[in-house]
Automatic annotation (TrEMBL):
<keyword id="KW-0408">Iron</keyword>
<comment type="similarity">
    <text>Belongs to the cytochrome P450 family.</text>
</comment>
<keyword id="KW-0560">Oxidoreductase</keyword>
<dbReference type="GO" id="GO:0005506">
    <property type="term" value="F:iron ion binding"/>
</dbReference>
<protein>
    <recommendedName>
        <fullName>Cytochrome p450</fullName>
    </recommendedName>
</protein>
<keyword id="KW-0503">Monooxygenase</keyword>
<dbReference type="Pfam" id="PF00067">
    <property type="entry name" value="p450"/>
</dbReference>
<dbReference type="InterPro" id="IPR001128">
    <property type="entry name" value="Cyt_P450"/>
</dbReference>
<feature type="binding site" description="axial binding residue">
    <location>
        <position position="277"/>
    </location>
    <ligand>
        <name>heme</name>
    </ligand>
</feature>
<keyword id="KW-0479">Metal-binding</keyword>
<dbReference type="InterPro" id="IPR050479">
    <property type="entry name" value="CYP11_CYP27_families"/>
</dbReference>
<dbReference type="InterPro" id="IPR036396">
    <property type="entry name" value="Cyt_P450_sf"/>
</dbReference>
<dbReference type="InterPro" id="IPR002401">
    <property type="entry name" value="Cyt_P450_E_grp-I"/>
</dbReference>
<dbReference type="GO" id="GO:0020037">
    <property type="term" value="F:heme binding"/>
</dbReference>
<keyword id="KW-0349">Heme</keyword>
<dbReference type="InterPro" id="IPR017972">
    <property type="entry name" value="Cyt_P450_CS"/>
</dbReference>
<dbReference type="GO" id="GO:0016705">
    <property type="term" value="F:oxidoreductase activity, acting on paired donors, with incorporation or reduction of molecular oxygen"/>
</dbReference>
Length: 328
């Protein structure tokens, strides 16, 4: 990704206005490698390529699903423009997914064994289950991770001293050799920085459950069947749960001091329990690797008006992410 970033920097060494789109491509490329063991070559993809159609379809899906589900369901009476776009996006995602499942089936037949997560799934559970699982991966694995990375890069670009500490940690562990599995376990500050951004700016601001039995929460009797929402954003930014919650302080994830220690459930950006994020380990692997490489390669600065965050529907910086990248 960082060699790509060098190519697309403008004459002021800043990332271009559509940088988030580049991060989406990186995210799909990483998912392709993890789930399909395939290079999709997203960075070289033309606008009408399968990869770009998939990226746009996932964005359309996320932008319309909330509107269609939560507002008056006119689409039940007649197919509104948004409903038609939504169905078209789902058709695109399904057809791309099915083409990969077919490819996986053919490769298994040809090679007599599986070499990707998708091929494992096809072998273990059959093409139908594999197709549904792959659909889920594409649907929720691209934008979540890319918006998290965009947000982390932006937050770090506002904080040079934190970048320096990260650079020291990374250099000490890697000693100028390429990254290998297990390295990130020697980088507690890197992990803490990612957790801190996810605490203050969780890409998924909340997640819901329907209670399966009558439950008492904070002294309130909540009957079975009620929808309850765990507000990641509210909890993560509350002084009730985090010491000086408005301060960006990665050390809070490394401290053992009881006075500053927060409850283990106070920030759950990947959810919890049976329905927690299935892709958490993938996402963390991707995020830690890319942030590590970016910090190794560049000093980052943000020299424009501070950006607000908005829900789009991921919680993400609202505006072009123009980060000045100076080679180290
Ligand atoms: C920073 C990146 C990500 C964040 C913040 C995130 C967050 C979440 C959250 C909050 C949930 C709901 C959990 C719950 O209800 O307890 C979820 C579900 C899910 N996520 Fe992620 N996710 C990320 C990346 C990914 C990736 C990369 C994949 C796949 C490769 C993925 C696959 C899934 C799936 C399949 C579910 C549904 C699980 C279920 O309903 O049983 N996620 N994610």
């Amino acid at each position: 990704m960082f060699s790509r970033v060098r190519q697309i920097r403008d004459e002021n060494s800043e990332t271009p206005g559509d940088f988030l789109n580049e991060v989406h491509k990186w995210s799909l490329e990483s998912l392709g490698l993890i789930a399909l063991d395939t290079r999709l070559n997203c960075f070289d993809a033309s606008e009408d390529s399968e990869s770009m159609r998939l990226i746009h379809a996932v964005q359309t899906f996320f932008l319309s699903v909330g509107e269609l589900e939560l507002r008056a369901p006119w689409w039940r009476i007649y197919p509104t423009k948004m409903f038609r776009q939504y169905v078209e996006a789902l058709d695109t995602i399904l057809s791309v997914t099915l083409s990969h499942v077919e490819k996986a089936l053919k490769e298994i037949e040809a090679n007599g064994g599986s070499k990707s997560l998708l091929q494992d799934l096809v072998t273990a559970a059959g093409p139908r289950v594999a197709a549904v699982a792959a659909l889920d991966l594409f649907l929720v694995g691209i934008d979540t991770t890319s918006n998290a990375v965009a947000s982390i890069l932006y937050q770090l670009s506002l904080r040079p001293s934190i970048q320096e500490r990260l650079y020291e940690e990374i250099t000490k562990v890697l000693q100028n050799r390429p990254m290998k599995p297990g390295d990130v376990n020697q980088m507690p500050y890197l992990k803490a920085c990612v957790k801190e951004v996810m605490r203050m700016y969780p890409v998924v601001i909340g997640n819901g459950r329907q209670l399966t039995k009558d439950t008492v929460i904070c002294g309130y009797n909540i009957p079975k069947g009620t929808q309850v929402i765990f507000q990641h954003y509210v909890m993560g930014n509350s002084d009730d749960y985090f010491y000086n919650a408005s301060e960006f302080k990665p050390e809070r994830w490394m401290t053992r001091s009881p006075a500053q220690k927060h409850h283990a459930f106070a920030s759950l950006p990947f959810g919890y329990g049976k329905r927690m994020c299935l892709g958490r380990r993938f996402a963390e692997l991707e995020i830690h690797t890319v942030i590590c490489k970016m910090i190794q390669a560049f000093k980052m600065e943000y020299n424009h008006e501070p950006m607000d965050y908005h829900i789009h529907p991921m919680y993400t910086p609202n505006g072009p992410i123009r980060i000045k990248l100076t080679d180290r």
